[in-house]
Please model this.
Amino acid sequence: MPADAGAGGGGAATDPIERFDPLERAVHWTTAACFGILMATGAVLYIGQLEVLVGNRALVRTIHVYTGLLLAVPLLVGVLQRRGRLLRRDLGRLSRFGPGEARWLRPGVDRGAIPLGKFNPGQKLNAMFLGSAIFVMLATGSIMHWFMPFSDDVRTGATFVHDWWALGIWLSVTAHVYLATSDPVALRGMTRGVVTRAWARSKRPRWYAAITADPEAPEDQERLHS
Amino acid sequence: MRPPHEDPEGEAVVGDGDARRGAPVGRRLFLTLLGLGGAGVVFGRQVSDWMERVLGPITARDGTGLSSLLPVGRFRIYSVTGDLPSRSHAQYTLKVHGKVATPTSFSYADLRSMPPTTLHKDFQCVTGWRVHSVEWKGVRLADVLDRVGVTAEGKALRFTSFDGEYTESLTLEQARRSDVLVAYELEGDPLSGEHGGPVRLYVAPMYGYKSCKWLETIEVTDHVVPGYWEREGYDVDGWVGRSNGRDDSAT
Model:
């Protein structure tokens, strides 16, 4: 039972420790699928050479628009669920920097010397950029699609933002996928939901200490708004 | 509101094993980005104009072509049909008929063998975007008209696209201007499909919708027949800065 395996301070280095529950993983992967479809269809709509190769512009655009409308749904449904407690707590964790974490981002710093919580600061920045991008892209994409009520300037501005944000999303997602696939244990945290005890202890010591010290507190209390 | 447990570095003094009580850096970033996106919508027009002026000359000299992926001074591809039509150079013909002495079909090679004209002009779309200093090469429409010989009844031109939908129009006087081309090159390369290739119309002093892409036929008519967008309310005389309620500077 991975869910219970985190409790207690001892245990073998390879013990599974739950990192993301099934709801979080479902939210992550459905959102990731939407992002993938949007990035692929967006690239076709944006890059002339791809467009000529693929054709079917109307179909590609329809897929892009409807997938875009669905993009925020998994996250919102997950957050609003009663079962979404861990997801909500992790969003709280992603939104705050712990001790030393601002320093962690600076070049030339010994990152190993800064004990991290559940997420590293890069993951937090990535999550916040992509999370906000969902809403920025939804808003600007809607202006581009239902353009009639908007002035030329607003349409041009929306297109401008949509284009530059898309470039940022490509960079951010590429970096995220590269880093995730270069750490197989961390990747398994999102595919199967579990990491090893050794990984948690060395890579995320403050998280590990918190979930093993006393399984009832402080991790299992809702203190998002404290 | 929250800062009793923050130090000036923005780092938490109280840690509870996780950063929940630390500085809300992520939340600030989230809200800042939403704000930036909103500001970008409001000021994007000015910012993108400025970037085009500053970055345009740099990206134009980039040999790798990678910078063409940046959203600076890009053409936006519109098509009124679901698909981008395509036709090879060998398949291509331009048929000129109507009120003319000798109806003629020009092959791609025929057009290439006529004296070329090169123009460097801004391309302005009626929806707002503008690409600065674009190089177009082609044959003057006036030369094409001289080849076929417009009769006395000929007063205007009607263009159709091989996308099967799009049409455009010009008066004969507009068509004879020296900055109106039957274009086959863009920025030194053969005109590609998404830009209206292999051959399109290029009406330099007017908004982009006048420059019929995928040009297939030119019919000389005795009156102006409004084109595709003009039936949707766009001005038939689409001068840049003097039509469609816009005040863009001339191209």
